[in-house]
Amino acid sequence: MAPLPLQPGAGHRQMWSWPTVEQRGGDEDQLEGNSSVHLASQLSQTALLLASGNTPMPVTEQSEAPWRGWHGMDTGGMNKTPTGLSPSTATVVRFSENREESNTGLQETGHHVQLTDLPNEVLYEILSHLDVCDLFSASKTSHHLRTLSTSPTLHSLRLRRARLLLPSSLTSPSRPSLPDLIRRSIFLTNTALISRKLARKLASIHLARRLAARPAAEQLVERCVLPAECVPSGTGTKKKVVVAPALVAKKRAVERERVKDGLRGWIAEVWVGRVREAEGRVRREEEERGVGRVWRLRRFWEELSSGKGTA
What top-level branch of life does the organism fall under (predicted)? Predict the structure, then answer.
């Protein structure tokens, strides 16, 4: 291994001294930046672990080393709460400590963390994977989710995610080819549109010729194809009203039911009375003539029940 080149003044004895104010400020700024980035990553991991139901490790134990500043060196590195951080970083640290205390309380009580207790950043990441219909369903659950579902920030995230997923979806082997889309009538070319228009025009021309060649309504009435009510007849003020064939069929069905009801009433009132009268007349004639063995037996039992018969 080649020896390192000597720097100027390397042979002289160097004395160690405390850093100056400028060096201390630069080191503190770098420490604060690193700690804020580390805390943000730790907070996001903690929120994801809470959403999945796992128990996260305490934030203070994981990030204790980056918090140690110059003030921590004076006390032996035992300060868990940094004293030389900016107010924003200190707020993040206090939030992580409160989150640790709440996690400890949840572990003791056995309750689960609700979805609405998660930070908005995590909820935005979760909602960005949902479709519009799923976002609409989620917006009906609570006011907080409704506000997040209708936020422009969420829709910008969804557009960014769609922009990233679109190239992979277009090059996917499961995506149908253009001939398949044309065969399924999903993608229409100019030729397909022109052929559809020509088919409609040919169908209309064919139908117009068939309608012109069909017989008149009077001929259809003579052939008993259409009822007479469907053709206008008469002159002057006594012109007959034209009725549609479907209405004519309904009208005739109502008339048939009306005739049936009349026949039922006539049978119940007239025909039953006539039948009873005829039966009585036949029975009287049989009694007068003494016809039938049954008549003699009935007469015998009637006389016996009335006391006229002999014992």
Answer: Eukaryota
Residue 82 contacts by C-beta under 8 Å, 6 or more apart in sequence?
Answer: 35, 67, 68, 69, 71, 72, 89, 90, 93
pTM of the model: 0.28
Confidence of residue 215 (pLDDT cuts 50, 70, 90): confident
Whole-angstrom Cα distance, residue 270 to residue 191? 77
How far CA 242 is from CA of 212, 214, 239, 254, in Å, comes to 21, 20, 9, 18
